């Protein structure tokens, strides 16, 4: 199985901050790496697919980059509605696996 | 509107069974792989199972293999998860999700399963 490790596990930030979350895979995911946002009590929402493709309707302040085993989700200017938990997920090899999540909290 | 609606969750005793359903609308269900993903209380997301468009391929996470069965009825635009031999560690909210571009792009609201 491919193990996905996110860092940090949590972070505190202010509105307007640039936020970066990293995701490292235990082996190459061939760039089949996706990012989701989840708010309490709600279903996850797809933000980025296949490393860097912005899902329709997702604000352009979200971006993804990386290759092989190391990937990054960047929020260029944090907005109030962005406080949530973020998960990376690989879809290269079955079983699909998620990172443990990164909680973005208000500073 | 593209929508997935899960149902069938509830309280079940260890060793019991439950069948979850996911009703799809607003898109051509038969053209998409579908997934089940679960989330234990206060924990992260865990992918559980995938099924190909025509039902000919199914995949499971090891922890549910031999106990859970994913199935679909394309005529009814529905996805199912038959869960047998349930354990306490199966307690979770179960989401169904549509697969597009190797990602899960549409999610249902989830249905809660409690094994106790």
Structure characterization notes:
- The complex is a heterodimer of chains A (107) and B (116).
- Chain A has 107 residues and is an all-beta fold.
- Chain A contains no helices and 11 strands.
- Chain A is globular, with a radius of gyration of 13 Å.
- Chain A starts with a strand and ends with a strand.
- In chain A, 33% of the residues are buried.
- Chain B has strands spanning 3-7, 10-12, 18-25, 34-39, 45-51, 58-60, 68-73, 78-83, 92-100, 103-107, 111-115.
- Chain B starts with a strand and ends with a strand.
- In chain B, the strands form 2 sheets. In chain B, strands 2, 4, 5, 6, 9, 10 and 11 form a 7-stranded mixed sheet that branches. A 4-stranded antiparallel sheet of chain B has the order 1-3-8-7, with no helix packed on it.
- Chain B is an all-beta fold and 116 residues long.
- Chain B contains no helices and 11 strands.
- The relative contact order of chain B is 0.31.
- The mean pLDDT of chain B is 98.
- Helices cover 0% and strands 54% of the residues of chain B.
- Chain A binds chain B through residues 32, 34, 36, 38, 43-46, 49-50, 53, 55, 87, 89, 91, 94-101, and chain B through 35, 37, 44-47, 50, 59-62, 95, 100-105, 107-110.
Strand content of chain B: over 45%
The strand count of chain B comes to 11
The class by helix and strand makeup of chain B works out as mainly beta
Whole-Å distance between the termini of chain A? 36 Å
What is the end-to-end distance of chain B?
36 Å
User: What order do the helices and strands of chain A follow?
Assistant: EEEEEEEEEEE
Query: What would the principal axes of the Cα set say about the shape of chain A?
Result: globular
Helix and strand composition category of chain A: mainly beta
Note poorly predicted spans of chain B: none
Mean pLDDT of chain B: 98
Rg for CA atoms of chain B: 13 Å
Rg of Cα set of chain A: 13 Å
């Amino acid at each position: 199985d491919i193990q996905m490790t996110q860092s940090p596990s949590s972070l505190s930030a202010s509105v307007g901050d640039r936020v970066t979350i990293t995701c490292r895979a235990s082996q190459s995911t061939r760039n089949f790496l996706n990012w989701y946002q989840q708010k309490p009590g709600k279903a996850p929402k797809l933000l980025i697919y296949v490393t860097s493709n912005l899902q329709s309707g997702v604000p352009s302040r979200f971006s993804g980059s990386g290759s092989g085993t190391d990937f990054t989700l960047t929020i260029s200017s944090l907005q109030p509605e962005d406080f949530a938990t973020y998960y990376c997920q690989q879809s290269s090899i079955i079983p699909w696996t998620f990172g443990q999540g990164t909680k973005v909290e208000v500073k | 509107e593209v929508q997935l609606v899960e149902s069938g969750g509830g309280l079940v005793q260890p060793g019991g069974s439950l069948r979850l359903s996911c009703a799809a609308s607003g898109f051509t269900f038969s053209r998409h792989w579908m997934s089940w993903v679960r989330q234990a209380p206060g924990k992260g997301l865990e992918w559980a199972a995938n099924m190909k468009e025509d039902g000919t391929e199914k995949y499971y996470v090891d922890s549910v293999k031999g106990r859970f069965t994913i199935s679909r009825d394309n005529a009814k635009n529905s996805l199912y998860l038959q869960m047998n031999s349930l354990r306490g560690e199966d307690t979770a909210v179960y989401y169904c999700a549509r697969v597009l571009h190797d990602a899960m792009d549409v999610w249902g609201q989830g249905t809660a399963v409690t094994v106790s």
